[in-house]
Amino acid sequence: MTILVDVSHRLGGFQLEARFASPGHLTALFGPSGSGKTSIVSMIAGLIRPDRGSVEIDGRVLTDRASGIFLPTHRRRIGAVFQDARLFPHMSVRRNLAYGKWFAPARERYADTGRIVELLGIGHLLERRPNLLSGGEKQRVAIGRALLASPRLLLMDEPLASLDEARKSEIMPYIERLRDELKIPIVYVSHSIAEVARLATDIVVMSDGKVAASGPTGEIIQRLDLLPAEERGEGGVVLDMTVAAHDIRYGVTVLKSAAGEIRVPRIRAETGSAVRLRLRARDVMIATAEPVALSAQNILRGKIARIAHASNPLVEIHVDCHGQQVLSRITRLSLDALRLHVGQEVFAVIKSVAFDHENLSNSLADQGF
Amino acid sequence: MELTPDEWNAVRLSIKVAVWAMLGSLPLGLLTALILARGNFWGKSLLNGIVHLPLILPPVVTGYLLLLSFGRRGPVGAFLAEHFGIVFSFRWTGAALACAIMGFPLMVRAIRLSIEAVDRRLEAAAGTLGAGTVWVFATITLPLILPGIIAGMILSFGKAMGEFGATITFVSNIPGETQTLPSAIYTFTQIPGGDAGALRLTLISVAISMAALMASEALAQRASRRIEGA
């Protein structure tokens, strides 16, 4: 799956000038509101015709102003889940789900109603009317409805933005299952770094109608300069780790990667399975000597690879832990007091508080939470 | 309350004329409402003005214009009579046409308002699921505007039941053919001792209108319950 977008579009006083290619399995369009994310999604869906440019999915040209190609929305077979679920109010959940099913040609119909209903946990809602569903239930039905049309690509435009934290963590595992089990390509719009870090395989950062950066999640997430000022504290790195062991006595799970071992409160994942861990830069401290008698248990050894002067009075320290980057955000005062410099051997001390469930991701990990 | 055969005829004719006027104007009314609600073209306000014209013109003027154009010697009337054998002047069909035109602005207005109230994002969602324009209209838009359509039909029916000026000008007042309830009541008031007949027909007129109104209310309530999904 490759997504090629190269468009210019003027909407009132807003100029969109976006160009990116993503091989992503789950491509996140990330940026503050008003940065043009929704416009791009609307162009991929065919709801907006760009002034100039083209949209191409997997070699299939959907829009190309130069050669006059514009495939109408209903012929694109691109599913969409919007911030407001947009369920049809005059139909039951069952009929909502079935709506798109028959539009797909029979041999391209891959979605199985029973499996998707089970996957999304909406079996008990089938006979209800949309207005009797909670926000989270509505959103799950909307996802199911989009999937049952057997789309080639699924667009999700801030699907969690209108939900509270509890509902968000209710839905996220389902989105991970779409990504990992159904393997359907997804373009995911969000302004939340937590969602993007957890879900995305690739990130396109939008700012002011332009693409500020794009690339694999691991690379982009480290660049705190790309984040809006108020989200900068949320930035950090994503570590792909495996579950090494469970310590039932202390209720702890040990995760392992090249960088070392990290202990987290026990998660529901089998030994050997892969999990993704987000380390916020603000939760990582730097020590020049191996700390002893410290309550924080997670200490990674590494070398300072880079010192970036982000914004006074803070600096970002990139620590290379055996090939894996860990990002720390400390004050300039500490930098000078510890006389930190590139190449120096240091210890990254991770406060345990950094591991909440939101930051831990695994397709099995969160079921039941 | 005994009715004479002529009075019965007037009641039956009125209902027939009103039903035909309502059903006959529905397709064009729906189309016009769609164009006015969704269209964006030069001359839209002109079309809007023409649709609303019967509402502001004296009914006699509308009836006279109909007589001029749809009468036997009128350009449209002559053409229809010659090629399709459809005659409007001095027939009940003419009464239905006059009533349809008089009720048209009311019908269009009710439907147009309901179309404008439809959340177009629902239609966009249906599009992403693979539904083409016609299908979206049939399965999303139409069910959502059903209460508006019902309201429009009832307004048209009600207007037709009460239409007098345009009808009597266009098709006259022929018992059994074009004498609707209002014309019959008018006739009774013009003859000595006709008060009893006028009162009988008035009561019937009130009863029919009330029944239609209540039936539409019940239908509209059912339709909007469906939409809100309660």
TrEMBL record, chain A:
Pfam name, any one: ABC_tran
Sorted UniProt keywords: ATP-binding, Cell inner membrane, Cell membrane, Membrane, Molybdenum, Nucleotide-binding, Translocase, Transport
Keyword Lipoprotein attached: no
InterPro entries: AAA+_ATPase, ABC_transporter-like_ATP-bd, ABC_transporter-like_CS, Mo/tungstate-bd_C_term_dom, ModC_ABC_ATP-bd, Molybdenum_import_ModC, Mop_domain, P-loop_NTPase
GO MF annotation terms: ABC-type transporter activity; ATP binding; ATP hydrolysis activity; molybdate ion transmembrane transporter activity
Domain of life, per lineage: Bacteria
Domain (Mop): residue spans on this chain: 293-359
Keyword NADP: no
NCBIfam families for this protein: modC_ABC
UniProt similarity note: Belongs to the ABC transporter superfamily.
UniProt protein name: Molybdenum ABC transporter ATP-binding protein
Lineage: Bacteria, Pseudomonadati, Pseudomonadota, Alphaproteobacteria, Hyphomicrobiales
From TrEMBL, chain B:
One Gene Ontology CC term in the entry: plasma membrane
Domain ABC transmembrane type-1: 11-214
One Pfam family hit: BPD_transp_1
Segments crossing the lipid bilayer: 17-37, 49-70, 90-108, 129-155, 198-220
Membrane topology type: Multi-pass membrane protein
Major location (coarse): membrane
UniProt-annotated location(s): Cell inner membrane; Cell membrane
InterPro entries named in the record: MetI-like (IPR000515), MetI-like_sf (IPR035906), ModB_ABC (IPR011867)
Keywords: Cell inner membrane, Cell membrane, Membrane, Molybdenum, Transmembrane, Transmembrane helix, Transport
Keyword Cell membrane (UniProt): yes
Family under the similarity heading: Belongs to the binding-protein-dependent transport system permease family. CysTW subfamily.
Protein name in the entry: Molybdenum transport system permease
